[in-house]
Amino acid sequence: MDAVVSPEGVSCAPGFVSLAALAPGTKGSVVSVGSSAAPLSPLERRLLEFGFVHGEQIEILAEARPGRDPFVVRVGHTTLALRRQEAQSVWVEVEHSRASPHTPRP
User: Fold this and answer.
1) For the domain bounded by 4-94, which CATH number is listed?
2) pLDDT-based confidence at residue 13 (cuts at 50, 70, 90)
3) pTM for the model
4) Does the CA dihedral 3-34-26-57 come out positive or negative?
5) Helix and strand tally (H, E) in the chain?
6) Which one is predicted more confidently, 24 or 11?
7) How far is CA 71 from the centre of its chain?
8) What's phi and psi for 20, nearest 5 deg?
9) CB neighbours (10 Å) of residue 90?
10) Is residue 10 pLDDT above 90, yes or no?
């Protein structure tokens, strides 16, 4: 899986999205950390150590209001608070559930 920087921003293979772009309640699995075009940064190596490895299940649990930063993510059996900037290089395949449409709260 390759992420490529273009004038439109970072693009990725269809079906994959940056962890930083996900909303609370979203579930999926880790595809990769970083890009094959560049060596891993110290932050990306640390994310791997935290458990963001290929195939690991993730779930976005909560986010701060206002600003959405930091947010709480569960990776495997570990729960972490991350800044969105820290999570930009984690690529995720989102799990699409067959649940009923979301009903807004009053």
Assistant:
1) 2.30.30.90
2) low
3) 0.72
4) positive
5) 2, 8
6) 24
7) 11
8) -65, -20
9) 25
10) no
